[in-house]
Design brief:
The chain has helices at about 15-20, 55-65, 80-95, 120-125, 145, 180-190, 210-215, 235-250; strands at about 5-10, 30-35, 45-50, 70-75, 95-100, 115, 130-135, 150-155, 170-175, 195-200, 220-225, 235. The protein is α/β, with parallel strands linked by helices. A six-stranded parallel sheet has the order 3-2-1-4-5-12, sandwiched between helices. Helix 2 packs across helix 3 (about 80-95) and helix 6 packs across helix 7. The structure holds NADP nicotinamide-adenine-dinucleotide phosphate (NAP). NADP nicotinamide-adenine-dinucleotide phosphate binds near residues 9, 10, 75 and 85.
């Protein structure tokens, strides 16, 4: 039996779940690739490599030189550069690619979402009047909110941002999902939050804040997904495992 050598492009819950599911499965030789932005990533089993590849060209070289049989793009929904690079690199290297593209959240009755196209748009949509904002868009894109200094921000991110990148009026919470509805409700009430700002990352782990906003009748500024190039894709880790299994079986029957 020939092992399938798989590269997972990670940085998401799906990538972690996939790495855990495949660990110890002798049919696969798995490498998980992380960009290296998080100082303390979640501990995962198996081979992990860290840092960029040097664009699509560098990734194609890695796929060829290290003889990968397949690549699964399980990056965060807003990581549009690495997603495009993966498609191009897989094409150049002639390696099958599958993308896990989790569904975006959709508004339901009772939601009051203000849709914006990017983080700058989210800061503008907060308006001129001072508000108390629950901000969950990540520590890397704070500049537009630093400029909108009339607002108070309850900022939740996985890791602490640099002090000089923080808005003037801020309280910081470092935490990693999943989050529970009762905790999100308590947080929004305790900090007298007027409005929530989030990216439409989708998935269950961080959905509770949207339920909490709905329950309390609060508006949500929702940053839309970027448009992504077409790629063979599935919505879940289970479907990715099925794809991989089919790939492995067909590679071993030829
Ligand atoms: P991006 O703009 O699409 O990628 C920028 C560059 O970072 C890529 O061109 C690539 O460098 C490198 N890179 C990204 N993902 C990589 C990976 N898995 N392995 C190796 N290199 C990678 O992405 P971003 O928005 O900066 O996000 C960076 C990473 O953080 C992504 O992997 C994403 O999945 C993760 N992330 C996770 C969350 C979350 O909440 N789970 C939130 C934000 C970001 P080269 O061109 O040199 O190859």
């Amino acid at each position: 039996m020939k092992q399938t050598k798989l590269l997972i492009l990670g940085g998401s819950g799906e990538a972690a779940a996939l790495a855990r599911a495949l660990h110890g499965d002798a049919r696969y030789d798995v490498t998980l690739s992380l960009a290296g932005r998080t100082r303390e990533p979640v501990k995962l089993p198996g081979t992990i490599r860290t840092g960029g590849f040097g664009g699509a060209e560098g990734l194609a070289r890695t796929l060829t030189d290290e003889k990968f049989d397949a690549v699964i793009d399980a990056t965060y929904p807003f990581a549009d550069q690495i997603k495009a690079n993966a498609i191009e690199a897989a094409r150049v290297a002639g390696v099958p690619l599958l993308a896990i593209r989790r569904l975006p959240w959709r508004p339901v009755e009772g939601d009051n979402w203000i849709l914006v196209k990017d983080i700058e748009g989210a800061a503008v949509a907060l308006g001129e009047t001072a508000k108390r904002v629950f901000l969950t868009t990540g520590r890397d894109e704070l500049r537009p909110f630093v400029k909108a200094s009339q607002h108070f921000y309850l900022l939740r991110s996985v890791e602490t941002p640099a002090a000089d990148e923080l808005p003037a009026q801020v309280e910081l919470i470092t935490a990693r999902g999943p989050f529970r509805l009762e905790d999100e409700l308590a947080l929004l009430k305790q900090h007298a939050i007027d409005i929530v700002v989030t990216k439409n990352s989708g998935g269950e782990a961080t959905y509770a804040k949207l339920e909490a906003a709905r329950t309390l009748g609060l508006p949500v500024i929702m940053v839309r997904r970027p448009s992504l190039p077409e790629a063979p894709s599935v919505e879940s880790v289970a479907a990715a495992l099925d794809w991989l299994e089919r790939h492995h079986v067909s590679a071993n029957s030829t």
